[in-house]
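Fold this sequence, please.
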Amino acid sequence: MRKIFFTLYIVLAIFPSTTYSETRYKQFPPCTVILEPTKDIPANAKGVVLIYDIERSFKDKRTSLSVHALHMPKPSGFGDYNSYEVLAYIPNEISWIFPLTQYENNNWVGKWDEISSTMRPKHVKVRTINTKTKRVGPVILEKKVSCVN
């Protein structure tokens, strides 16, 4: 009798939550945003943000966020910094930080595929960072994300 109640408890606890999560998933349309330079940054510095839903090989749905920054000034021009990172966030809720990789003189790229499929960042910033000390510097590019959800 104890086994029956335990099995019933497990089935009732797991089955409704699985069904709810599958029906709750809403696919958002892809979104692109142009990142603009902040004050005193050369106007040629620009970036592109691409946000879209992905389904990974093990049936896990996530939101992918990628950033492509072009004509960026050298991070060392702002102080003791050697790289750039992305700060994407939903105010007062959650933030995601990931590094950018340099792939030519002044171009940087990076992506993050670990965002819940039900979330989209509302702000995206590219800022300098010292990768050894983890000290962050000024924001170089930024934009408020205003895609239709």
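The longest strand covers residues 46-55. DSSP finds one helix and nine strands in the chain.
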